[in-house]
Amino acid sequence: MRNNILLVLALALAFGFKASAQSFLENSQVSGSFQTDAQYYRLDKGIDITDLNGKKLGLNGFGKINYTNGNFSAGMRFEAFLPELNGFRPELNGVGLANFYANYDNGFIGVTVGDVYDQFGSGLVFRTYEEWSLGMDNSLRGVRTVIRPTQGVTLKGVYGRQRYYWAPYSNDLDAKNYRGIVRGIDGEWDLNQSIPAMNDAELKVSMGGSFVSKMQDTTVVNNLFYRIPVNVGAAAGRINLAYGRFAFATEYAYKINDPSAINNFIYKNGQALMSSLSYSQKGLGVVLQVKRTDNMSFKSNFTGMENDHDINFLPPINYTHTHSLPSMYTYSTQPNGEMAAQFQVNYTIPKGTWLGGRYGTKLAFNMSQVNDIVRDSIMVNGQMVLNKKGTLGYASNFFAVSDHRFFRDINFEIDKKISKDWHVTAQYINLYYDIETIEGHAGAPVVEANIGFLDVTYKINKRQSLRFELQGLWEKEVKKGYAYDESEKKDYQKRGDWAFGLLEYTITPHWSFSIADKWNYGNPVPEFRDHYFTGTVSYIHDATRIMLSGGRQSEGVVCVGGVCRTVPASSGVTLTISTSF
Amino acid sequence: MKKLFSIFTLSVMMMLMMGCDKIDINNTNKPYTYFGEGKTVLIKDFTGVRCVNCPAAAEVAHELQHQLGEDRVFILSVHAGFLATAMGQFPDFKTPEGDEWYGNNSANPLFSVDHVALTEGNTLNESQLDTPLSEALAEDQTFELFIVNNYDEATRELRVETDVTATSDYLGQLYLTVCLVEDSIVGRQVVPGGVDTAYVFRNVFRGTLNGADGESFANGSVYVNDEFAKNYTATLNEGYNADQCYILTYVADKSKGGKILQTAMEKIK
To answer: Does the domain formed by B37-140+177-208+238-267 have CATH 3.40.30?
Structure first.
């Protein structure tokens, strides 16, 4: 670690050498942000928290500082998990300099050393990113180079080893902490910028391609049963077209044999295809997206499970709900295979019409569905087998859709400013959620629910406003009186009907007060029909926000971009302080 | 510019060539490697004569055992749970010790790797066996086990002499469990599509000679080369085929939830 810091400082000095002391100070810009999330936990028999296991306080915090001077920039992020908040991975427990980098970019060439974040295309073969709310950081410690040899052409290269919580980056490790070296190249060509004749053409065209490979020393991480490839490569090609009000983008990715814990050690090649077609004009937007993934989990450690060691990113194509009950059942990407489609229409009824009123009315319709891919048995040594370890696993017709539906969300939203004082948003959602596949509750019945909310804001005067939310979730099958198996009772922790109410009072620009209750009144298990009260006070001063909340938090999942973590039920007080400069 | 593109193209070519290893799909399994002395591992297969999925699961466990070496991985087929309850002409292999190990579980097949206690989270299905097996085999050996069986065919009396030697210093609550195992019993088993009337039951657990938890032989520190000898006697049931009977012993640490540290097996004849 110390050597790495010295290296970055040395490079920083080398890059900055040309700048005189005067200009160094004059042109410097420093920016940063800090955040602390602390939670005090208490016993709460009402929601079955009878033992804290000695953990009364959890704290997640970071401080990020970036320095920029002309073509040079450098930065670092310090993190503390003392210990980590409930629901975050225990491997995060610790404190230290999690991330640092130095970058020089003069427009022709850019070099970054240290911890690298980047994405090739839509991320199907490579994406490193940090998501604080998930406790996720798969940055690459190494080098990133960008070359722009001519207008419209960008060539990139990355080389390094991924972050795995606080595990050292050296090669001399036990198998659990080990991960391979990731190297990748990407090229992108914007034809409209490159070719003078196309500069002003209505047809916009850009295309790109990537190749990423991981090299995992299988003498360090040994598998007793199977021959594991040391080098695994994945390639992708993409094209973006835009003509007038239409836009089309597609990317196809392919990965060679990559037996791993997550794909049950099968040797089948992976594939992914993502396409989107959109139309937009003033007041109207239409988007259709389709996606097919098959065995496309790509990790720098073949033993990795969940979201650990991810080299690539499989983007979800589902609506992102932000309200409490609609976001209770959020879809988590299934890396072993999906057939997904999403259709979205946004329309604004113009101002001055009967339905549009004085301010116009925004309507949105969204439908997304994800099914499994079709997997057919294959012949191995004279026997038909399906997904057997050490084989090609299965055969799959590229265009076939399985009857096994993972998820469906049909929703309709109206967003209406009624007068200068009243604003209303209402949404209806019809949800199908295969909780057995998505959350791993074996044998649990599918969640089929109708969900609705009403979000109303009333502006009392220039400084004060009131906002209230009413939400309801009604399951079709699992509700009061549902005959559940007593031995699987814990799988019904959050099932059945819910009601939610919130009242928020805001005094701009500083204060906000809210109370809320989330009530699982229709849970089939009587002892799970709990109230989750919360009260929150927040204070904002410029870029600083201090928030104190107390009460109960229900069990659930937090998902960002289809990547999820489970949040256990808790009770206590939470303090969040964040600031930026 | 041309040079730059040449360098980039060369990089792409190099990466394509070096970045992928294609494995021959007909040669994905690693051959069995003899490790000599070392840590041994016990798989307990909680099975039942009326469990339709159990024969296939047992096959997976035996494939793994064959691949890793029958001198390193041992399987104990423990008939326990509702689907192990004998009905009609199905054989009854249930034992009180097996029921105790099985505890409150309600499904078959279930497996444990080197764990005596079947607490929540310790049971596995057949597709989850390989990772804990790899981890267990990678552990350092802490004890050596020796078994000497003396069997009198006339009286069917069996005397088992066991010897446990510490191969490193160790701190724990140590127990030795001695099990009787009968292999290759032919009987009725539910299989997909019906009943196999001549199913061959492998490594059937017939009971212990010293209780479900075994017998304590050390509580606290033991030091390298410490030796513990335990002897047991039993009379072999008339219905058991002595030619197919084995003694399987294991050392477990109760302070680690009953984790098994070493296992050994020896034919009684």
So the answer is: yes
